[in-house]
Amino acid sequence: MTHTEPIRLAAADSRRPLVIAGPCSAETEEQTLATARQLADEGVRIFRAGLWKPRTKPGGFEGVGSAGIAWLERVKRETGMYVATEIATPHHAEAVLESGIDLLWLGARTTANPFAVQEIADALSGRDIPVLVKNPVSPDLELWIGAVERLRNAGIRRIGVIHRGFTSIDRSRYRNHPMWGIPIELRRRFPELQIFCDPSHIGGARELVAPLAQQAMDLGFDGLFVESHCRPDEAWSDKAQQITPQALARIVRQLVIRETATTTDNLNGLRAEIDKLDDRLLELLAERMRVACEIGRCKKEHGMPVLQTRRYEQLLSRRTEQAAELGMDREFMRSVLRAIHEESVRQQMRIIDEK
Ligand code: PEP
Ligand code: MN
Questions:
Q1: Does 234 map to a domain?
Q2: pTM, 2 dp
């Protein structure tokens, strides 16, 4: 991916995240304007509202469509806020490019479809409008990066991403599992890419907005993308996760923003300790791989298959229990063991296939 630039609409403040907020859907002109005025009073500078709503099943409220463009233009005129909406087809792109809309985003279901992203990128080609790319519904970092690249290749320079969590079979407390490791890896690979967190769609519940927003700040995210409605209980879509503009302002005020530039001596000492532990961890892993290869040679000699399912099951359950006793998360240990086991099997297959 070649270089991207920040969305540069409102100046980022090193002590405060950039907040983009507004209702899941623009429902009526009155609701859109009332929400926008209250958000502007609370200091929000960028307003979001969905006009075309991708709904899981037909028959629900699918958005007011292009009729809402004039409402967003009115929000911009009367409050001075920048306005943003989601586009999912080239037709949406054309409609917003002719309007005063300042910022666009691609939804999670759109990012998941490279054909749709390419058609939208073509429709936006050469236009200087900032675009935010939500992560795809599945935990696929390359697909997310691919969508950013398609826009970048179409000449869009100002690009950011929105982490909104991932569909997971693990029915946890979240609507969409945060899987923080994915945005962390994205930041490592593309440090200049602006990252927003959408705690509303991750949590799916009002009470989770504050803790998720704080976690995003602890990880150094640049901003927040939050659903806010003047009357959340009456919202036509996603009502369980929408909060009032006043509640949003309270949450933003209470966020603890930690300095990332300064490190204390104590922290440096602890990091040195972690480095030493990682050295030992790597040496142990290398030793374990050597033994696994030895086992591979033994299996080859005796004509045994590589995969011994029962042994693997025993190892997995014994070690996850041990991990729990040591105060670690079972799921964490299962994924570590799975990764180690997969690599051992790969090494043993290589040995068995050797002539
Ligand atoms: C939204 O932001 O309103 C939306 C539809 O989100 P997502 O694409 O993350 O589901
Ligand atoms: Mn929504």
A1: yes
A2: 0.81
